[in-house]
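Minutes, project check-in
Item: structure for the 957-residue chain
Input as provided by the requester:
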Amino acid sequence: MSLIQETDFGTPRSKSEAMVTLTIDGQSITVPDGTSIMRAAMEAGTQIPKLCATDMVDAFGSCRLCLVEIEGRAGTPASCTTPATQGLVVHTQSERLKKLRKGVMELYISDHPLDCLTCAANGDCELQDMAGAVGLRDVRYGYEGENHVFAKSDGAANAAWMPKDESNPYFTYDPSKCIVCSRCVRACEEVQGTFALTISGRGFDSRVSPGMSESFLGSECVSCGACVQACPTATLTEKSVIEIGQPEHSAVTTCAYCGVGCAFKVEMRGEEVVRMVPYKDGKANRGHSCVKGRFAWGYTTHKERILKPMIRDSIEDPWQEVSWDEAFNFAAAKFKGIQQKHGRDSIGGITSSRCTNEETYLVQKLIRAGFGNNNVDTCARVCHSPTGYGLSTTFGTSAGTQDFDSVEQTDVVMIIGANPASAHPVFASRLKKRLRQGARLIVIDPRRTEMVDSPHVKALHLPLMPGTNVAVLTALAHVIVTEGLVNEAFVRERCDWGEFEEWAAFVTQPKNSPEATAIRTGVDPKELRAAARLFATGGNGAIYYGLGVTEHSQGSTTVIAIANLAMATGNIGRPGVGVNPLRGQNNVQGSCDMGSFPHELPGYRHISGDAVREQFEALWNVKLNPEPGLRIPNMFDAAIEGSFKGIYVQGEDILQSDPNTKHVVAALSAMECVVVHDLFLNETANYAHVFLPGSTFLEKDGTFTNAERRIQRVRKVMTPRNGYADWEVTILLARAMGFEMKYDHPSEIMDEIAALTPTFAGVSYARLDELGSVQWPCNEKAPEGTPVMHIGGFVRGKGKFVITEYIATDERTGPRYPLLLTTGRILSQYNVGAQTRRTENVVWHSEDRLEIHPHDAEQRGVRDGDWVRLASRAGETTLRALITDRVAPGVVYTTFHHPDTQANVITTDYSDWATNCPEYKVTAVQISPSNGPSEWQKAYDEQARHSRRIAPAEAAE
C-alpha cells in the first residue's frame, strides 16, 4: 500500500460548456473556457511552481511564483489568475522566469526557519518542494529577514517573534513558519464560510490572526481543518503528525458521524491512524470536513472501549469476561429458553444506524429468519420514520430527492426544523457558499440558529412556536394558492389534479390564512406572506428539513405538507430544487433501506406481500412470518406487560436516546435477556445481560448510505481490536441460535442485497470501486445511479396532494408547566455522545446546557451558569442555564449528548400518529433554581456505577 496522491490543479475547475484550445510549452490542450493557465498546464502534465494557489479556493495571485510568458503580451502574468483563451501560446520556463522565481523564493526563505530535518512537515512541505523546483541554492539576503524566526535577537527578547499557539486540541499554529500565502484565510472564508481568520499587519509584519489576535481555541474557529489542509508549510499542523510522523499509506473510507457521508483518506503508519484528510473526489463533501470527521476519531483506541465479551445472570451482578463462544452460547441459550417459555414473538432486535448496510441487513435477517418473527426496528423510528411515511405517500419513495451538488443551482432555500451548521456542517458550508453568491434563505425554526445570521448571510426567519409546523406550512400554501402563485402547468402534468383541487380548497379556507394561524404559531403574518412569495417566485426552490419536522405528534403530516408545497410550486424533478431530509446518523438512510422496520423487507416492500416474501424465503431457505412485528415503543410496552422478554441491540443506546427514560428503564428491567453489541458500556448496557464488543468503522469493510441516497465504501484499515467485525459477530450469534449465514466477506452480503432489492440491483463493490459511489436507484435503467429523483414523473405515477389539518399536540403548557422545551444538537458532539465524549471535542461542549430567554430567567431568579431544575410531567433533571435571546420567551432548549443530564427523562410518550416517532420537540416544562443534581440523577448515577462493575479475571492455574 502507498499514500493516495491527489492532484492539486491550483485553481478550481471551470463549469463552462464552451471550450478553448491553447498551446503550453509546445503542447496543444483544450479546456473549458475560464480555466486558468495554471490548471490547463497541470491537466497537460506541466506543474507550474506555486505557493498561494490551491484548487480548493479561488485564485489569489500573491506569491508570484507561478509567473509565465505569453507570446504577444508584455510582462510575466500569474498563471493562476490569467484565464486560458483561444489560440494562446504560453511558456512556463525561460531564463527570465527562472531568475524571477528564484528571487521570490529567496525572499520567502530569508524569513523562514531552516529546521527542515526536525520539522513536522518534512516530506510534506510545499515550500520545501518549490525551493527545489525553482533550483534555489543560496539566499542573497541572509536567513534572518525581519527576524520573526527566533524568540530572542542579540540576547534580548524579540518583539517581532510570536509563540506557537497550541490552544486547539488538534492542531498547532506556528507563526514563525507562516509565509502569508493567505490559503488558510481563504479556505476559512470560501470553503468553510466561518471567516474566523484574517491577515493582520503589513509587509514583513503580516501574520495570520484568528479573530482580533485571539487564540485559535478562543476565536470563532470551528476546527473544521480546512486551514490545516490548505497550509503549504508547517505553520498549521495536526498534533498527531507532530507526535507520530508523516503517514506512509492510506485508504479511502466514509465518515461514521452524521448523514452527510464525507469521504476521507485515512492516512496511516502501520495500523496507527496518523490523520484523516477529506477526500477531494468525495461527491458528498468535495474535499471539506468538520471537527468530528476530521479530528474526532480517537474514540477508536479509547481506554474505556470494551474488547472482551461479557455476561452475567442479573444486572445486579458484576460483569464476567468470557470467550466469544461462551458469550454466544449464553445469549443463544437465553433467547431460546425465552421463546420456549413465552413464545416465538417474545424476543426481537434493534438494528444500528451507525453500522454498515451489510451489518444492518444481517441483523434484520437474523431476527426474521433466525428468531422467526418481525420484531425488528431501528433508531429511524425515533428520528426519520415520518420521512419514510410522508414521502412514500406523496412521491412514492422514502428518501430525499436530490444530491448535495444540487444546492449549487438553487435560488431559494427553505430550512425547516434543522440547523445544518451544527448537525450537518459540511453541507452547511456548501449551502452558505451558495447563499453568499446570491441565493435567498428562509429558516422556519423556534430558535435563532447559526443559519439565520452568519457572515454575509441574513435569512428570513419565521420563529414559530414548537408544535405548529403544520399550521405554518399550510399558511404558506394558503398564500401561494390564493395569490395565484401555483405552478399550474407542473401540477396538471405531474400530479393528480382532482386531489390538488381538494387540497387547494382546504388551504384557502380563512382559518388557514397567516393572520388566522398567527395566534397559534406566533409568526408575523407579513413575514410569512413574504416567505411564501419568495419561495414561489424566487426561482429554483429547495426544502431541507431535520428532526424539528419529524419528531412531533404531526411529524408525518408535516412531511406531507412539505411535499405538497414542493409540488404546488413545481420544485421537484430537476437540479436545484427538491425535498431533502437531513439525516442525523451516518447510515440512518441505509438502515431503513435494509429492511429495519417491522413491516418492511429491504427496499421498503411490505412483509405481507406473498410474491416479495417468497423471494426472500427462497434465498434464505426459511419460511417467513407474514405479520408485521413490534415497533420499539411496542416492544417496551410489551416488556412491561410481560410478553416481550429478550432483545438484541446493535449499536444503539436506547436508554439515552429514546423518550421517557423511566419508561425505558422499566421495560429493560422487565426483560430476561438484553444483549448489547457496542463499543462502550453505554447506558443501555446498565440493564444488559450480555455485552458483545463492537468494531469501529476503521476495523471493517462495508458500505454506508448517506442522506442523498449515496452508497459509499467503508474500508478496513486496521485489525478489529475486539477480534471480529460486527458483521462477523452477528453471523456467529446466528450460528449459536441454529441459523446458519455463510459469508466470507461483506461484498457477498451486498451481492445478496442487490439480488433481492430492486433499487440496489446494480450495486456491487466492483461498481463502487469504479465509480467511487452511487445513489440508488441503481439498476438497469440507471446503471450509474440516480442523483435526482422524479425527473419527468413521480415514482408512484402522479404526485399525491394530501390535506394536512393542523391538530394541536396533547402536550400542553399550563400553570404548572408554562414553558416549552425543544431539543437539538451542537457542532462538537454527536448523538448520545458515546464517541465524541471520548475525544478532545469535550473542550467545546463538556456538558448539556439549558438555553433560556433573559425574560424567563429573570422571572425565575436564574442567572447565567446557575444550576436549574428542569421538570415535566414525565420527570425532572438538573443542568446549568445559558441565558440567551436565541430562544423566544416561553421556549427553552437543550442538547442530549451527556448521560449525566439524561434530558430524555423529561420527554414524554406522545408520538407521531402514523409512525410512533416520539415528540421530542414539544415538552411542557417548568424551570426553577437548583443546588445541583436531582435525586433521580443521583440514583441513576449510583445504579450505573454499580452495573458497570467488571469482576477481576481469575488467575490462570
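Outcome recorded: The CA atoms of residues 123 and 740 lie 50 Å apart.
No further action items on this chain.
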